[in-house]
Amino acid sequence: MISTKVHDLLGHSEAPGRFGLFGGAYVPETLVPALRELEQAYREAQEDDGFRMEFRDLLLKYVGRPSLLYEATRLSEALGGARIFLKREDLNHTGAHKINNTLGQILLAKRMGKARVIAETGAGQHGVATATACALFGLSCVVYMGEEDVRRQHLNVLRMRLLGAEVRPVTLGSRTLKDAINEALRDWVTNVEDTFYCFGTAAGPHPYPTIVRDFQRVIGEETRAQALATMGRLPDALVACVGGGSNAIGFFHPFIEDAEVRLIGVEAGGKGDGSGDNAATLSLGQPGVLHGAYSYLLQDEDGQITMTHSVSAGLDYPGVGPEHSYLQETGRAEYVRISDEEAVDACELLARTEGILPALESAHAVAYAAKLAPELPTDQVIVVNLSGRGDKDVETLAAYLEGRGKS
Amino acid sequence: MSERLNRAFSEPAVGMTRLIMYVMAGDPDMETSVRRLSGLAESGVDVIELGIPFSDPMADGPVIQAAAERALAGGMNLTKTLEIVRTFRESYATPLLLMGYLNPLLQYGWERFVEDAVVAGVDGLIIPDLPWDESKGLRALTAELGGELLTFIPMIAQTSEREDIEALTAEEKGFAYVLSRNGITGGEVEIPATVLDFLKDLRQLKLPLCVGFGIRNPKQVQRLAPFVDGVVVGSALVDRLAALDAEGIDLNTMKEREQEIFQWVQSLKAGV
Question: What's the whole-model pTM score?
Fold first, then answer.
């Protein structure tokens, strides 16, 4: 157990990059200068109109932003209660929100003069987005991916290779996202002089949680403007899935000051609450240090990171971004969990009522909205961040449904 | 600083330089660990580094990763690691450092850890994912609770900036752990001239310097010895011990074969 005193000490370190008491940069000394260089480059880029315009221009003309805020009328009717809207990040180029962040980071890599890019990926969406951005800017790209994820997200592996990236399967540990991050960090610490680590989620050491959040904030900013333009008011609740938490933090962040808007993060409840059966870090974990940040973790009493499970590769991670730990601790956001079963059901529900097949990750958010909507009056508005499309999950879904004898 | 650690660096080195050897606690079990630590002490090793296994060792290469997996599979944890130290201390005064990642130490409870480590006879800590920037609060608390008997060993990377190096060597006692290259533990290092220049530059600092990562033969030690106060050898030893464990031999044969490894340990600093 971490005492209050040590909790405060970790949080009140003079080093920057804290969200309340969470965050920091707990990395080998070799990486400390590289993280500082990244922070410096990012601060300078933020002040540079040219950089901001280039990023904006890419989002408009390459990604296809703004993404739609779509009212899911048939879904809402089927459920009864609140009106459900979908923020259609699945319509972005490459099929998920991940491209927002990778384009921003690859512009930074270019600015810093780094010719080699590495990334980790779970579901493969960040890997595809990184490979895409590297192809667009002519940079070499290596993606680390757990062997288990290589198997279950095979289509994305093929996409990355077609885009010219080298995919390195990771055969260590649980062979999922956690181990891919370990291997990417080992690569970075070895090749730090010429390599840019394009981190995929709002976790990891400072400054990544801030950089990734800022590049993903466009989701929430657009949602806010679209809600005001079409309804003349803000939504009552935002719902997003949380693995590392990048789509959720980008979605929530522009609404943090709007106390009347509920912020709801949905974690992977997997097969149940037992250790190893889920990836519900905020709901079931304890604070600790993994992958460079002090945040909530799924761990045993000895501080070893435990195995996780989720039907969705992108949520199958024992850590979470430090800003989510902070939002949970302050009570500004609430975190709930949805089981594999409920997520799969939500995929079918959305596909059949709206003709939209969501990624299994995003289906967790849809599933929670489907529980929440009937409890709310019809004049309330829920916006679900539909962070990705489900093409990559078709094989997993088919196998799952076959397993329970439904297809 | 503990008297044991102080003595290791205040007295002149025996052989080419001081030798720091790393083994993983509980690889493959507690009893074997204690026996091998004793063997290292009797081989004249100057400082022992005892690894605490962690599920996600991001600074370690395949050899130490595998050792951690074996130790965890055998049920090793920090409580048992400290028991190994206590048993070793009953017979030996060789300084001993714990090397491990931050999270298991945090979950044990830092206050309890400092107290138990001092009582067990631990002399210092090497925490690869706790850089200088982030360690200030924990160092202060450790000094307050541990009566300065637990020394934080700072790490200097090839990438470290000058002012950081000066800051981290100004306050600390013991020695600075200098990384021979950017990267993870293990592999083999061809010692390039730039590393020797880097070490020459660091010589102006008042703290003793020990170099580690990829050191595995007497030739490397000989090349480094004029520029350092000690060398750290880890993966090369862990690899040899693991190969022995994989043979499935009986205890007596095992002990004999361990003696061959200890002779190799002695050769590391005795000269080519």
Answer: 0.96
Which tokens sit at A175?
């062979």
A186's tokens:
């080992």
Facing B136 at nearest CB: one of A5, A14, A173: A14
DSSP for B28-41 reads S-HHHHHHHHHHHH
**Alpha carbon separation from A183 to A177, A180, A312, A332, A365 (Å, rounded):** 10, 5, 21, 34, 30
Q: Is A307 on the interface with B (CB under 8 A)?
A: no
What string of pLDDT tens digits covers the 272 residues of chain B? 999 999 999 999 999 999 999 999 999 999 999 999 999 999 999 999 999 999 999 999 999 999 999 999 999 999 999 999 999 999 999 999 999 999 999 999 999 999 999 999 999 999 999 999 899 999 999 999 988 899 999 999 999 999 999 988 887 689 999 999 899 998 877 888 888 999 999 988 889 999 999 999 999 999 999 999 999 999 999 999 999 999 999 999 999 999 999 999 999 999 65
d(CA A259, CA A249): 16
Classify residue A386 by its DSSP letter. Answer: E
Residue A13's pLDDT band, with cuts at 50, 70 and 90, is low
**Contact yes or no for A334/A264 (Cβ under 8 A):** yes
Count Cα atoms within 13 angstroms, Cβ side, for B217: 8
Pairing of strands A18-19, B124-126: unpaired
By annotation, the residues of B acting in catalysis are 49, 60
ipTM of the complex: 0.95
Contact status, residue A346 vs residue A268, Cβ threshold 8 Å: no
Alpha helices in B90-161 (DSSP H): 102-108, 110-120, 132-146
Domains and CATH numbers, chain B: 3-270 (3.20.20.70)
Q: Phi first, then psi: what are they for A292, rounded to 5°?
A: 90, 0
| B68 and A CB contact within 8 Å | no
* A229 in contact with B, Cβ within 8 Å: no
Closest C-alpha to B174, from B241, B249, B121, B229: B229
* Of B136, B158, B153, residue with least CA distance to B202: B158
Mean local confidence (pLDDT), A76-98: 98
Nearest by Cα to A118 from A109, A39, A277, B91: A109
- If one counts every other C-beta atom within 10 angstroms of the C-beta of residue A332, the result is 15
Phi, psi at B129, each rounded to 5°: -105, 20
Q: Does the CB of A96 have a partner CB in chain B at under 8 Å?
A: no
- Nearest CB to A303: which of B103, B131, B154? B103
- Summary mean pLDDT of chain A: 96
Sheet holding B209-212, edge to edge: B151-152, B124-126, B96-99, B47-51, B18-24, B230-233, B209-212, B176-179, B155-156
Residue entry with tokens 């990184």? A130
Of B58, B136, B138, the CB nearest to A182: B58
Contact B145, B173 (CB under 8 A): no
**B-proximal residues of A, 159-198, CB under 8 Å:** 172-173, 178-179, 182, 185-186, 189-193
Please state the length of chain A.
Answer: 407
Three-class SS of residue B50? strand
* Short-list A270, A259, A130, A100, CA closest to A196: A130
Residue written as token pair 């044969």: B253
